[in-house]
């Protein structure tokens, strides 16, 4: 271990990426940690976000998360071990991965590049075009269907680009389909779950708050459309592809049901 100077104090950090030889690509991990930022050598926005699982002793590269960490707060890390090498950031890569911000405060940790190049910035796969760009009209026939939208743990706000992309796809289809009304159901993962030696659960009221957030967005994007809301607690995982195979992510959702 070694020490680095951060602001006015010293913090103990792990000196090197930890081994994940016992892990296999695709293995699901879930833990709570304080995020660590590594400065890198590949220019702007190439820095790495890391998180240490104290129970396993493994450091993970969580830079691929659409939820960018706040290094002042703990994060709930959920991801699957990638087959990618750890060379960009010096840690076992999680991809897909989510890093939901929690309320617990953290000391800020920053590491120097130490020879790790990081990744040059590129637009995420889920990236919407400006509204001035015409959308391709989805082909029919049109029938009842459901569009999911996902959230960070414990929050009801829309995630930049990730949710924007999901909502844009849904609205484009709805505009072409001309349905009778929309029913938005918010879900919350209210069943207590052990993670990193503590028990976490979302509040019951979050389900209704998520439904209201999506409904208000739809009313603004689809003036005149009838939009109803519902709420459901004790959410179970689903297998929708846009949750990237992460059970926890799939629980934290709202569903836009299109009715004719």
What report would you give on this structure?
- With 260 residues, the protein is α+β, with helices and mostly antiparallel strands.
- The chain is 15% helix and 33% strand.
- It contains 3 helices and 15 strands.
- The chain has helices at residues 162-177, 205-221, 247-251, and strands spanning 2-6, 9-13, 28-33, 35-38, 48-53, 58-61, 73-81, 92-105, 110-111, 145-150, 181-187, 193-195, 198-200, 227-232, 253-259.
- The strands form 4 sheets. The chain has a 7-stranded mixed sheet with strand order 3-7-8-6-5-4-9, with no helix packed on it.
- β1 and β2 form a beta hairpin.
- The N and C termini lie far apart (62 Å).
- The relative contact order is 0.16.
- Residues 1-21 have low confidence and may be disordered.
Number of helices: 3
What is the CA-atom radius of gyration, in angstroms? 20 Å
> Mean pLDDT, rounded to whole units?
90
Distance between the termini: 62 Å
Share in helix? 10-25%
> Biggest β-sheet: count, sense, barrel?
7 strands, mixed
**Uncertain regions: pLDDT < 50 for 5+ in a row?**
1-21
Structural class: alpha+beta
**Secondary-structure element order, N to C:** EEEEEEEEEEHEEEHEHE
* Beta strand count: 15
From the structure above, extract its key features.
260 residues, alpha+beta, seven-stranded mixed sheet, 15 strands, 15% helix, disordered N terminus
Q: Can you summarize this structure?
A:
This protein has 260 residues and is an alpha+beta fold. It has three helices and 15 strands.
Helices and strands in order, then pairings?
Blueprint: E1 2-6, E2 9-13, E3 28-33, E4 35-38, E5 48-53, E6 58-61, E7 73-81, E8 92-105, E9 110-111, E10 145-150, H1 162-177, E11 181-187, E12 193-195, E13 198-200, H2 205-221, E14 227-232, H3 247-251, E15 253-259
Parallel strand pairs: 4-9, 6-8, 11-14
Antiparallel strand pairs: 1-2, 3-7, 4-5, 5-6, 7-8, 10-15, 11-15, 12-13
